[in-house]
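I am writing to request your help with a piece of structural work I have in hand. I am sending you one protein, given as its amino acid sequence and as whole-number tokens for its backbone shapes. Kindly check, if you would, that the fold set down in the tokens agrees with what the sequence suggests. You will find the record immediately after this paragraph:
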Amino acid sequence: MAKDDYFVVAYKILAYLYVQLKAGESIDSAMLAANGPLMKINERYWTYILENLQAQGYIRNVHMGFMGGQKIITDYEQCEITPEGIAYLCDNSLMEKAKQFLKDVKEITPFI
């Protein structure tokens, strides 16, 4: 796995949202931004990942639109993990591999 692998990025997003939920804290949208401290990926890829996490029911409250014929995220300030997202994060073997990858390369985020 690479640090920009789909499952690694999805793990970072879901883990951050879950930690914030358990702490009763609002999300810092800068943390989830494509160029933010957690992601550092291109906008199109970031949009693709958020769109799919929402379509699969793992997150909610991500709003999308179109600009210049390209899909964009218009708002994710209220993004949150769903119970399905929590189960996916905790029980999916690919999420476990992503978590292990981040630990192995010492890039795991400080909130976990």
Notes: The longest strand covers residues 70-75. The first helix runs from residue 6 to 23. The mean pLDDT is 86. Residues 52 and 58 are 9 Å apart (CA to CA).
